[in-house]
């Protein structure tokens, strides 16, 4: 455990560097230790998306409202939202069901120089109470929610969102065209190789995560967001098979 005032020790992601018994991917302590390195080297555009969450938050946050980071992991998007909120009367809540993630997130929040209070909850986002929101973030989180529960979650978020409020939704997506799917997957794997992952690491990580990370097409996401109660959905960022969308509630 890290000492007070010190950031948690970050390790290089070598979790899949050697042959291992097949098992589903879990956000446990071993993943939490390497997560910053893992996501930076695995998700194209992640280092762009995070600072832009601050920009978007600043544009849409409303005084006296609640802001939520659902599936906050180590708090990268939570901190981005925190720095984008100029109103001292806003409430910022980060939620994750992994105790290991929340524990490390607490350290990063404590070391941050913003004075806006952050409440962290270790609980299932499907059970999180939501209300009076102006900005909510699902940053590569919905893809781990069972598909048959995604509509209910997004509907609850939309119902809790003030007019003029938004949801930032970042996801790994799939494609209807097999040819496009193959091209985008190949480019993603080349991105990983360029960041130092071996073919064994890429293969084993893919096998571990494919049963728990279930991507959908961009069109499916837009359709669901509109059905949930948002009035406009646009893609503000895409790199290969990773996108970030902005869902806006107008009324």
From TrEMBL:
EC number assigned by the record: 2.1.3.-
GO biological process entries: methylation; tRNA wobble uridine modification
Molecular function in Gene Ontology: carboxyl- or carbamoyltransferase activity; methyltransferase activity; S-adenosyl-L-methionine binding
Record key words, sorted: Methyltransferase, S-adenosyl-L-methionine, Transferase
Keyword Transferase listed: yes
InterPro entries to which the protein is assigned, alphabetical: CmoA, Methyltransf_25, SAM-dependent_MTases_sf
Domain Methyltransferase: 69-165
Catalysed reaction equations from the record: prephenate + S-adenosyl-L-methionine = carboxy-S-adenosyl-L-methionine + 3-phenylpyruvate + H2O
Residues binding S-adenosyl-L-methionine, per UniProt: 46, 71-73, 96-97, 124-125, 139, 206
UniProt key word S-adenosyl-L-methionine: yes
Pfam families linked: Methyltransf_25
Family from the record: Belongs to the class I-like SAM-binding methyltransferase superfamily. Cx-SAM synthase family.
Quaternary structure, from the entry: Homodimer.
Known function: Catalyzes the conversion of S-adenosyl-L-methionine (SAM) to carboxy-S-adenosyl-L-methionine (Cx-SAM).
Record's protein name: Carboxy-S-adenosyl-L-methionine synthase
Source species of the chain: Marinobacter similis
Record lineage: Bacteria, Pseudomonadati, Pseudomonadota, Gammaproteobacteria, Pseudomonadales
Gene: cmoA
């Amino acid at each position: 455990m890290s000492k007070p005032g010190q950031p948690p020790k970050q390790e290089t992601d070598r979790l899949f560097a050697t042959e291992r018994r097949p098992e589903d991917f879990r956000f446990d302590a071993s993943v939490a230790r390497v997560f910053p390195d893992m996501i930076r080297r695995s998700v194209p555009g992640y280092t762009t998306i995070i600072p832009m969450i601050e920009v978007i938050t600043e544009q849409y946050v409303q005084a006296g409202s609640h802001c939520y980071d659902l599936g906050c992991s180590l708090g990268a998007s939570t901190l981005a939202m925190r720095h984008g909120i100029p109103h001292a009367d806003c409430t910022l809540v980060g939620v994750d069901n992994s105790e290991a993630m929340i524990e490390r997130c607490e350290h990063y929040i404590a070391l941050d120089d913003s004075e806006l209070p952050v409440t962290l909850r270790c609980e299932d986002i499907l059970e999180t109470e939501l209300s009076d929101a102006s900005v909510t973030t699902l940053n590569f989180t919905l893809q781990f929610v069972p598909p048959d529960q995604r509509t209910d979650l997004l509907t609850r978020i939309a119902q809790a969102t003030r007019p003029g409020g938004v949801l930032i939704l970042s996801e790994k997506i799939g494609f209807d065209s097999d040819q496009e799917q193959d091209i985008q997957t190949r480019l993603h794997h080349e991105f990983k190789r360029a960041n130092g992952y071996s073919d064994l690491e890429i293969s084993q990580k893919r096998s571990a995560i494919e049963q728990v990370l279930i991507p959908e097409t961009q069109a499916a996401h837009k359709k669901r967001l509109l059905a949930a109660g948002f009035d406009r959905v646009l893609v503000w960022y895409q790199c290969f098979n990773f996108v970030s969308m902005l869902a806006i509630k107008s009324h």
